Amino acid sequence: MNCLKLACIFLTSCLLISCSHNETDIPVAPLQSHQWVCDTGAIIEWQAENKKATKIQLRLDGSEKLYILDKIQTTAKGILYSNGDLAFRIKDSSGVIFLANNDEIIGQDCKAN
Fold this sequence. Notes:
The protein has one helix at about 1-20; strands at about 35, 45-50, 55-60, 65-75, 80, 85-90, 95-100, 105-110. The protein is of the alpha+beta class. It has a single domain, classed as Lipocalin, CATH 2.40.128. An eight-stranded antiparallel barrel has the order 1-2-3-4-5-6-7-8. The longest helix has 18 residues, at about 1-20. It is elongated and about 80 Å long. The termini are far apart.
């Protein structure tokens, strides 16, 4: 009977130890940051906020202002991100950035430098 109690205590301890594992201790690779230059000379620094890239963080021309753009749609023209004021479309390894309210282009043919 004592062996059975010891075995139960041992198994319970093992279960508790495995459940107490904290996944935040696992190192997470940082998301890739991009710096692109457009044909107009505009500089775009951007990175996805998460692995699914449902949002991106974007800075324009080295500004301190950080734009958070939501993924709006994915089509044959690329992936469109916008916050209602600023829009950024990415296709393959190039992009275009423009004002969302009037489609005024800030930069096109934006690519990694």
